[in-house]
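Problem: given the chain below (95 residues), write out its structure.
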Amino acid sequence: MKLQGCKNCETKFSYKAIQRAFFSKTEKRFKCENCGTEHKLKRDYHRIISIIVVLPMFLHWFLISLDRLLVLSITIAYVIAIILLIPNIVKYDKI
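Solution.
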């Protein structure tokens, strides 16, 4: 998995720019720092990330018999991993 580049000038997007755009409260858009071309999160990837985020809720049914501290640690590690991997997973389209 590698970071996506601009569809217009092929400049690689920065990790921080993708993460900031994904977690923004407005539409999932951002501009290329080099040429100014606007990009928007592909709809399919928004659904994929939603499924990945909801997955731990279902896993809790299987982990319920384990120690609470262990379950909490696993959940925190999962959330951190997802936050760090999102820029490598999502793809953007040129508008």
